[in-house]
Amino acid sequence: MVNKISRLIIFVIFGIISLLLLFSQDSTITLSQREKLKKALGDINKAPDFTLTALNDSIYTLSELEGKVVLINFWATWCGPCRMEIPEFNELYHSYYEKGLEILGISISDNKKQLKNFTKSFAVEYPLLYGNTREMNEILRKYGGVYAVPSSFLIDYKGKIVWKYPGAILKDYDPRTFAALVYEIEKGLKDLQLDKKTVK
């Protein structure tokens, strides 16, 4: 999945560059074209926006969370590895929420009743989101086609995808991947704090 997305991104980048060169009279990129190219390349990594309902009836819109580092975890209650991740994400949530991390567990197939029943047996500290089949299919398509769960995406405070992983992130079974996620979270939170200081 990651390779497919990477190839698509490279194809789009070359397409943009080709168009800019094609429409330039002297085959050089002007300042205006350079700015347009920079904006287009920046938008490639922009996390697709969505609005979903949480188990507590709160409404979450991703773009409204800019200014936070957001970990999106696509999962389902019937998925064994997804269940195994929950304690790890609870730990991350407790460690970093006050510093600016938000974790969103997005169920790809469960409804509100199923999620409520699930949380009677499993403690989940972070928001659990759900939507109807049409909404979920659209979101999964926008995120490059999420065909397997769990799948996770880390989004920086500017709304860009900076890290993704197709599979379970388990500290004991795959410490390297878990450490990579923690590193990216801490880096994102550090960048957020530096940006806040610069603005002041």
TrEMBL record:
InterPro entries (alphabetical): AhpC/TSA, Thioredoxin-like_sf, Thioredoxin_CS, Thioredoxin_domain, Thioredoxin_ResA/DsbE_sf
Organism: marine metagenome
PROSITE patterns cross-referenced by the UniProt entry: THIOREDOXIN_1 (PS00194), THIOREDOXIN_2 (PS51352)
GO molecular function, one term: antioxidant activity
SUPFAM superfamilies registered for this protein in UniProt: Thioredoxin-like
Name assigned to this protein: Thioredoxin domain-containing protein
Thioredoxin domain segment(s): 41-187
CDD domains per the UniProt record, alphabetical: TlpA_like_family
